[in-house]
Design a protein that fits this description.
Helix 9 packs across helix 10. This protein is an all-alpha fold. The chain has twelve helices and no strands. The longest helix has 20 residues.
Length: 230
Amino acid sequence: TATGRIDSLEPLFKEAEDAMYRRKLLESSSYKHDVIKLLIGSLHEKGQYERRHSEVVSTLCYHVGKEMGFPQGEADELKLAGMLHDIGKISIDSDILDRKGPLTDHEWERMRRHPEMGFQILRSVQNFGRIADWILMHHEQPDGKGYPQGLRNEMIPLASKIIAVANAYDSMTSPSGYRKSKDHDQACTELVRCSGTQFDGDVVQAFLRLPVERLLEQSDRKEEQPDGKP
C-alpha cells in the first residue's frame, strides 16, 4: 500500500513481490523448505540444549519484533531466523558443544565461526539471503567489539540486534556445565547494563516490556501439545 504520492508504481510492485516471496518461503512445502527442516533437525540432534535454545530464541525474536512494530510477514521471517540462528553449529563437534567446562582458545575460535558457517549454509538456499545476512551479524555489537566483522551500530540490521538480545537472554538463564544460570531479573539487569555497548538500547527496552516468562510458558505448552491441540 502506498501511503503518499508516488511517481511510479514499480518500486511498490517490487516491494509487494518481495514480501510475497518471503511469505511463500515461510509456508512452502518445497524441496528447499524440506532442506531447512533437515538442517534444523541436524542441529537439534546435537542435544536437548540446542533444541530448546533455538525454540526459545525463535519465540522471543518474534515477540520483540512485534513489539517493535514489525509487520506480520517480517515478524514471521524473524521467528524463522531465530530458529536458524545457530545452524552453523552443525559443523562443530558435539564434544565441544557439550563441554562441561571452559573451551580452549582453539575451540572458542571454532565456536566463533558459527555465524559465518550459518551464513554459508543459508545463502545457498534461494530466497534465504536476508535471513543469512541477519544470522551472519547476530554476534556483532553496537560498540564494534562483536564478531565476525566488528561492525558498529548503524551497520548492523535491526533483526540481528533482536536475535542478539534473545540469544543472550536464553544463554544467561539456561544452565551450563561451568556457569551458574541467572534468573529472569538478573538476566534483564545484565541486558540493561550492556545496553548501548553489547546490545541495542531500543531492542533491550522492547524486550523488557514483554511478559517474557509467560510467553515462554505458553510456548512450552504448545510444544507439549502438537499443533496446539489439547
